[in-house]
Amino acid sequence: MRLLLVEDDDHVAAALAAVLAKHGLSVVHARSGEEALKALLPDAAEPFAVVLLDLGLPDQDGFEVCGRIRKISATPVIMVTARSDVRSRIHGLNLGADDYVVKPYDTGELLARIHAVSRRNAVPPAGGTEQPAEEGVPEAPLRLGAVTVELPTRQVSVDGTAVPLTRKEFDLLALLAQRPGVVFRREQIISEVWRTSWEGTGRTLEVHIASLRAKLRMPALIETVRGVGYRLVVPASPASQAP
Ligand code: CA
């Protein structure tokens, strides 16, 4: 199994590579974000099972590197950082990181996480269909309590009744629905759904959130995370629903 280690500190990298090698992992070392991106280009020699990404890099912010990796490669990314705050973690996961390890970490824990993300990535989707999926979009309908979202046909239903949505409303719901419980930053939603930068689109996002809540008749389905963004909350069984 090949692993790409992105770490600017040669001592840290050498020590870690030695430990990982003992556990059968062959490590390729990149010292900067640019080196990492180069190693991950589709025409690069052999694919990596996992990218271990240090967030404190000299040339660019590790979060930015993670976002750029996601644009060119589906290789699982584990972020390694001294920042343990929840916001950083959410930010990393929203950028497409698969996992997050906080320094100082236990080697056993790191190995377990490496194996877990590489296993997840290796499992092919069950019952593959003929239709080519859009990049990164699963084919099976997403079921969120009473709400069903079918990505290939772009249909949404609540308790079996179809709910007509506009294109952007659907894109917005589909984005949130693919990772229930995960907080999506407003900037990220705007960039993914509207393909534009943040300026001036905030109000549009709010309007779409409001209309989704109304059309689905489930105001609690999309939760506002104040100062951050939104997340989709899958309703629990009625008995255990919080007031
Ligand atoms: Ca570093």
Distance between the termini: 48 Å
**CATH architecture grouping of the largest domain:** 3-Layer(aba) Sandwich
Major β-sheet annotation = 5 strands, parallel
Q: Name the shape in a single word.
A: elongated
Category from helices, strands and their pairing: alpha/beta
Rg is 20 Å
Keywords: DNA-binding, Phosphoprotein, Transcription, Transcription regulation
Pfam family, one: Trans_reg_C
Protein name: Sensory transduction protein RegX3
Describe, in plain words, how this protein is organized in 3D.
It is elongated, with a radius of gyration of 20 Å. It is of the alpha/beta class. The strands form three sheets. A five-stranded parallel β-sheet has the order 2-1-3-4-5, sandwiched between helices. A four-stranded antiparallel β-sheet has the order 6-7-8-9, with helices on one face. Residues 124-134 and 239-243 have low confidence and may be disordered. The protein folds into two domains: 2-120, Rossmann fold; 142-235, Winged helix-like DNA-binding domain superfamily/Winged helix DNA-binding domain (Arc Repressor Mutant, subunit A, Orthogonal Bundle), CATH 1.10.10.10. It has eight helices and twelve strands. The structure holds calcium ion. Calcium ion (CA) binds next to loops.
